[in-house]
């Protein structure tokens, strides 16, 4: 797995749960407690082991942990901006999810984000992918965060090797402010 | 809608002018860039071509570059096509100035045609700066770790003074004139604590360590910033004192150091006290200014100080230096 993904897990654990949680989980997973290298390339089993040891340490399932992680990453100011670039409203954002993988490649060569296929359903969208189920949960968390950001009320859940996104209320809340030219807008 | 109208509707950055330069139509995004200009002349200055002449000349160039009058730093580029009636149609773009233009004119994603790569360009621009930031944070972390490791390699962790390696580097710097302006004149002082072994044996190593720290603090308190202080093992300290060549001054300095070391200190509830014997070598008295020669001189003087009853300083004499 790309160092960027592992770094995200590391930073999430450190910032949200504190150094001791990170240090213990890192030790169990055989990861250098000083952290990952951003552009490093690590074996997938390192990431898998880290995720399950962090989840176990916190008494949560790996799926729940992956979902929290996805939501947290989407709320980092710079990531949130990159995600908001995809569309001016939630519907446009959903349709450009198919570009997620390509956009990841633009961010960092070798960053393999899952390939997602989006189809419109009666009340929303269905996101299909043959990626690892934990990726599905991470994307689900990210979609939750972005629905909030766009002010949309959405029911989002993993189902049948895909994600179902139902939007009963489109204009649920004000969208958080966003300006493509000014990073300060909506950053707080 | 005619084909011509449809074509213009697809181009939010187009401009249509008649032969006299009157603006007949401007795309909504271009309109934001040129304000309420009514003529080509009011909207643009042509870059890199003679400023006068019929507008039709623009149609001969493969690319035209136009400076906006509203924000002269902003140069648009595009293509001009001549119309049969002498007018022109231009399709313009922002090029590399895109990021500044978006800030300067407050543009949003709706201002660009969906086929335009402007948003992808912006995305890359942001992704690039976010990654650069993250990378430089990672670099800083490495740099911190490196300088910590370096400092640890030169210093004695117990006292914070230089270790033997730090002392040798400092000696070389002094000898080559990078540490002090006058490389020919300095003193090398070696110091052994008296009665330290007794303290260590009776009170334990923790008390011994506390005493070594106390001595180091005392040395720091009475020496100058340019002096080099080191502990090179056990209770053995070495000092380099730039500019100090007068034996009388050096002797006074030695007595101050001894007085400082002799100040009693409370360790583990008991008042403890050690003394020190000092031997010094002066560079100007030495045959060669090198480490082996000066250290041997100073060690000889230290031996003499111990022989004289400890708690004093001896300075290697000039004639002894000649003989060694």
TrEMBL record, chain A:
Coiled coil: none annotated. GO terms for molecular function: heme binding. It holds the Pfam family HNOB. Residues 2-120 form the Heme NO-binding domain. It comes from the Bacteria. InterPro entries: H-NOX_domain_sf, Heme_NO-bd, NO_sig/Golgi_transp_ligand-bd. SUPFAM superfamilies: Ligand-binding domain in the NO signalling and Golgi transport. Gene3D superfamilies: H-NOX domain. This is Haem-NO-binding. It comes from Paracoccus chinensis. The lineage of its organism: Bacteria, Pseudomonadati, Pseudomonadota, Alphaproteobacteria, Rhodobacterales.
TrEMBL record, chain B:
It holds the Pfam family GGDEF. CDD domains: GGDEF. SMART domains: GGDEF (SM00267). InterPro entries: DGC-Regulatory_Protein, GGDEF_dom, Nucleotide_cyclase, Rev_trsase/Diguanyl_cyclase. Residues 184-318 form the GGDEF domain. This is Diguanylate cyclase (GGDEF) domain-containing protein. It comes from Paracoccus chinensis.
């Amino acid at each position: 797995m790309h160092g960027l993904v592992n770094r995200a897990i590391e930073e999430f654990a450190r910032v949200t749960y504190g150094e001791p949680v990170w240090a213990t989980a890192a030790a169990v997973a055989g990861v250098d407690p000083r952290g990952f290298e951003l552009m490093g390339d690590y074996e997938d089993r390192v990431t898998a082991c880290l995720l399950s040891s962090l989840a176990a340490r916190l008494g949560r399932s790996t799926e729940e942990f992956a979902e929290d992680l996805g939501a947290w990453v989407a709320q980092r100011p710079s990531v949130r901006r990159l995600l908001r670039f995809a569309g001016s409203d939630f519907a446009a954002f959903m349709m450009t999810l198919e570009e997620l993988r390509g956009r990841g490649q633009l961010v960092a060569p070798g960053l393999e984000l899952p390939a997602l296929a989006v189809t419109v359903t009666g009340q929303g969208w269905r996101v299909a992918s043959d990626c690892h189920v934990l990726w599905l949960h991470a994307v689900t968390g990210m979609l939750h965060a972005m629905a909030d950001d766009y002010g949309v009320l959405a029911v989002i859940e993993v189902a049948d090797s895909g994600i179902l996104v139902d939007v009963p209320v489109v204009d649920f809340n004000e969208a958080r402010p966003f300006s493509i030219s000014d990073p300060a807008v909506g950053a707080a | 809608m005619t084909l011509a109208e449809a074509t213009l509707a697809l181009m939010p950055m187009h401009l249509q002018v008649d032969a006299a330069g009157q603006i007949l139509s401007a795309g909504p995004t271009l309109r934001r860039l040129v304000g309420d200009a009514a003529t080509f002349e009011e909207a643009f200055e042509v870059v890199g071509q003679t400023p006068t002449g019929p507008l039709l000349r623009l149609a001969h160039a493969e690319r035209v570059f136009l400076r906006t009058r509203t924000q002269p730093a902003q140069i648009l580029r595009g293509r001009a096509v001549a119309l049969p009636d002498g007018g022109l149609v231009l399709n313009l773009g922002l090029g590399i100035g895109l990021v500044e233009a978006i800030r300067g004119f407050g543009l949003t994603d709706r201002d660009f045609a969906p086929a335009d790569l402007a948003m992808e360009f912006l995305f890359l621009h942001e992704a690039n700066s976010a990654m650069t930031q993250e990378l430089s944070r990672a670099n800083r972390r490495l740099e911190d770790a490196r300088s910590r490791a370096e400092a640890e390699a030169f210093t004695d962790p117990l006292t914070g003074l230089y270790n033997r390696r730090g002392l040798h580097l400092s000696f070389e710097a002094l000898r080559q004139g990078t540490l002090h302006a006058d490389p020919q004149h300095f003193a090398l002082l070696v110091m052994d604590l008296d009665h330290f072994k007794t303290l260590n044996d009776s009170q334990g190593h923790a008390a011994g360590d506390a005493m070594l720290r106390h001595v180091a603090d005392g040395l720091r308190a009475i020496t100058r910033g340019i002096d080099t202080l080191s502990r090179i093992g056990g209770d053995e300290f070495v000092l380099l004192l730039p500019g100090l060549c007068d034996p009388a001054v050096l002797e006074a300095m030695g007595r101050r150091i001894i007085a400082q070391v002799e100040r009693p200190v409370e360790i583990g509830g008991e008042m403890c006290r050690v003394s020190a014997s000092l031997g010094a070598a002066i560079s100007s008295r030495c045959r060669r200014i090198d480490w082996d020669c000066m250290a041997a001189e100073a060690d000889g003087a230290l031996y003499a100080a111990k022989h004289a009853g400890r708690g004093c300083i001896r300075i290697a004499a000039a004639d002894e230096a000649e003989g060694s």
